[in-house]
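Intended use. Records like the one below are meant for learning the mapping from a protein sequence to its folded structure. Do not use them to infer anything beyond what is encoded.
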Amino acid sequence: MRVGTSFLFNNANDQFSDQELYRDQLHLVDLVEPLGFDSVWGVEHHFTDYSICPDILQFLTWVAARTEAVQLGTQVVVLPWHDPLRVAEQVSLIDTMSQGRFLFGFGRGAARVEFDTFGISMEETRQRYLESAEMIIQGLQQGYCEYEGEFIKQPHMPIRPAPYKSWKNRIYSAAVSPESMAMVAKLGVGMLVNPIKPWDQTLAELYEYRCTYREVQGAEPPPPIATTYAYVHADADHARETSYKFMGDYYRSAMRHYEFGSEHFKTIKGYEFYGKQTDTYQKVGEERILKYFTELQAWGTPDQVIEKVLAIQSKIGYEHVNVNFAFGHLPTHEVEASMRLFADEVMPTLKQVQAAIPT
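Structure written out for the chain above:
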């Protein structure tokens, strides 16, 4: 199993200045390769304390220049916010500069504050996502972009620098709803799985994704890449208390950013899944939701974390797990201690695991 780590630049409740947050997070980034992690991931979000990394490719270019071997992944580039030809060029450029270390993850987005500020209708996002994804995937595979769609109209244009090497099994998409998972299968790319739903539900949806992928592509899908949030400490009680506090603060900022539980999702075409979740969020209440989110993650002593990661792997069948260590306003020295303990006592076991992929 490969083990990566991602950086959210989450500044929950603005506990730090943005400059302090970047100073501390970039210090942690410099630890990733020496500690033996296989990949570094970033996210793209705008305007709120949920994540203050508005340019994921710029961040990863900085990482590429400071590392030699780790893979570099986007989790995700939100396609409706971008000119797809520019994305194809930028992805090809960073892959060339890093000598083929790039993993391209993309998604659709769901936060009203971001779409409204960029002046893009959320009603259009599914089609914009699909057209952009189709053009970029084809462009990276064949070395030129050409597309005629409802929103994307691109005359033939080569990508320069030309693609560094094959993109087979290096392109992934995030998806939350079953409808989006089917779309990812039809695009012929891998899945980025986030820990926000019951794992049994995710497993059932991945089964449908795999069936659709085989039917449409005539091949086996690549193993998904799964994310977990982790806090590792020798004391189980301390790990539990710390995780509930700071993972809760993180997810509270996510709920504010996305407006989970807001009635507006019920009226937006293409976000029906989120609309169905609105009543659940309102009925259950914030505290129970935060508790549930925390219980999905991998925290505890090293042995407990190993057990939780492998339990998730046995359901989902991933060969690459992406671990978030910095969330909420967890102090940097605690994040670093957790990363180091994970690298010393958890990661060696995970890297020996031969992942079994469910059918």
